[in-house]
Write a structure and sequence with these properties.
Belongs to the short-chain dehydrogenases/reductases (SDR) family. InterPro entries: KR_dom (IPR057326), NAD(P)-bd_dom_sf (IPR036291), Sc_DH/Rdtase_CS (IPR020904), SDR_fam (IPR002347). The protein has 251 residues and is α/β, with parallel strands linked by helices. The protein is built from 8 helices and 7 strands; from the N terminus they run βαβαβαβαβαβαααβ. 45% of the residues lie in helices and 16% in strands. The protein has a 7-stranded parallel beta sheet with strand order 3-2-1-4-5-6-7, sandwiched between helices. It binds nicotinamide-adenine-dinucleotide. Nicotinamide-adenine-dinucleotide binds next to helix 1, strand 2, helix 4 and helix 6.
Length: 251
């Protein structure tokens, strides 16, 4: 049996696939999410795993709620050994139409929320011999992405944060890495892509298809696994069908 792991955004998309994968690997999983309807569906879907999984309604922008959730996890589920920061929102809006309010909201959830979860988790991990934190960045931070000023900036921040925390937490035995997915078929992407933008995306992808949430899980499992990735920290792994490798179109 492995230790306990917190997955934010664990009720949908990539987070939910991660929860399922980690349960199959023997982790005890606490999933934090704010969407009550997704939580109810996910609970039903994973009922067979019994007491090894718990879904909690937590908004990661609520600092005191995060502090309490991390403390509950360590108390009820045993030493915290992993975190996957998957909660996030995305908006496709031209910069001229992006209000400061919206920009701040995206940063608050994607970047500040990930920071607070990582900071609180690291406080617990330093008491019990360390652990591994995996942040979810995006290819929108690796290359310019039309209409994603707030989102791309938040994910660029997540990549920088990953390196900084990796250096700060290394002496505590805590590794911090990130995964940068390309277009993955989840509710978030289905909301963003029109038929037209979907066709354009596919042309830029060397593998010529969107990924599945399950296809992001391998990299996350690797980074959480102390034996497999013990010497990897501060790194961002792209899981993007080759998008960031180039993908120039010959027309
Ligand atoms: P999703 O919408 O399916 O899941 C995101 C979950 O986060 C939702 O359940 C939502 O309720 C939760 N959430 C949002 N705000 C929250 C908050 N304040 N507190 C707690 N939970 C909150 O999206 P997804 O596609 O699975 O995205 C997961 C992560 O992967 C996000 O960080 C996203 O930016 C990133 N990502 C996704 C893609 C993609 O193509 N799907 C690509 C690159 C990066």
């Amino acid at each position: 049996m492995k230790g306990s792991v917190i997955v934010t955004g664990g009720a949908s998309g990539i987070g939910l696939a991660v929860v399922e994968t980690l349960l199959a690997e023997g982790w005890r999983v606490v999933a934090l999410d704010l969407a009550a309807d997704s939580i109810a569906t996910a609970r039903e879907h994973l009922a067979a795993h019994g007491a090894r999984v718990r879904f909690e309604t937590v908004d990661i922008t609520d600092e005191s709620a995060v502090v309490a959730a991390v403390a509950r996890t360590a108390a009820d589920f045993g030493p915290l050994k992993g975190v996957v920061n998957s909660a996030g929102i995305a908006r496709d809006i031209p910069a001229f139409d992006t209000s400061v309010e919206l920009f701040r909201k995206v940063l608050d959830i994607n970047l500040v929320g990930s920071f607070v979860v990582a900071r609180e988790a690291a406080k617990a991990m330093r008491e019990t011999g360390g652990g591994s934190i995996v942040n979810i960045a995006s290819i929108s931070a690796l290359r310019g992405n039309l209409g994603r000023s707030a989102y791309g900036a938040s994910k660029g921040g997540v990549m920088a944060l990953t390196k900084i925390l990796a250096v700060e937490f290394a002496p505590l035995g805590i590794r911090v890495n990130a995964v940068a997915p390309g277009p993955i078929e989840t509710p978030l992407v289905r909301e963003l892509l029109t038929a037209e933008t979907r066709a354009a995306w596919l042309k830029t992808l060397p593998l010529r298809r969107n990924g599945t949430p399950q296809e992001v899980c391998g990299a996350i499992s690797f980074l959480l696994d102390e034996r497999a990735s013990s010497y990897v920290t501060g790194e961002t792994i792209a899981v993007d069908g080759g998008f960031s490798a180039g993908g120039l179109i010959n027309v």
